[in-house]
Amino acid sequence: MNQKLFSAGLALLLGAGHGVTAFAQAKPEVLVKQRQAALTLQGKYFFGQLRPMAQGKTPYDANVVARNAVFLDALTQMPWDGFAPSTRDVKSGALPAVYTDTAKFKENQDRLRNEITRLVAVSKSGDEDAVKAQILAVNKVCLGCHETFREKQ
Ligand code: HEC
After folding, report:
1. Is residue 5 included in any domain, yes or no?
2. Residue 19 lies inside a defined structural domain of this protein
3. pLDDT, the chain, mean
4. Residue 91's domain is classified under what CATH number?
5. Which residue owns the Cα nearest ligand 1 atom 3?
6. Which residues lie closer than 8 Å to 53 by C-beta, 6 or more apart?
7. Residue 94: what are its φ and ψ, rounded to 5°?
8. In ligand 1, which atom is closest to the CA atom of 105?
9. Measured from the CA of 37, which atom of ligand 1 is nearest?
10. Which of 75, 89, 139, 142 has the most ligand 1 atoms within 8 A of CB, as the residue to mutate?
């Protein structure tokens, strides 16, 4: 086999495993748009639907809770790689602390992940009070991170 061709093929193969790196090099403006899109959908399913139920403002619907918990389980993992250092100077709602206090920013992401995992579990239990309490626990993490890392609305 032609040695050059073989090397090129190997490079392609190896490169395929580095998709995450390739995405991280997307244009900063694009990364910001994408992270905001994932956050907007979290807003739709959480602030717009789950939280009002937990607060007794809208009727409780266990099916919607179970569905949205699964949606959020995926959505809440999506925004974070969009806060790449290259996006620092793009106009957005992110405060500079996102890029300076990265350990605390990451800690808030992990906290959200834990609480959402718990929400998924408890949403299968049929225990309405426990579900509502867990929705409010998630809410605390959303607001806590916004307090430190998002511009005041
Ligand atoms: C780890 C920190 C963190 C957590 C946790 C977090 N957010 Fe945010 N959120 C941010 C930051 C930072 C922004 C501003 C992003 C930007 O403008 O690029 C933001 C922006 C948003 C926006 C506005 C998006 C837009 O288009 O401008 C919504 C809606 C939102 N978050 C909802 C939520 C919900 C719902 C939760 C909880 C389920 C949550 N966030 C949890 C950090 C967080």
Report:
1. no
2. no
3. 90
4. 1.20.120.10
5. 145
6. 59, 60, 61, 64, 65, 132, 135
7. -80, 130
8. 1
9. 26
10. 142
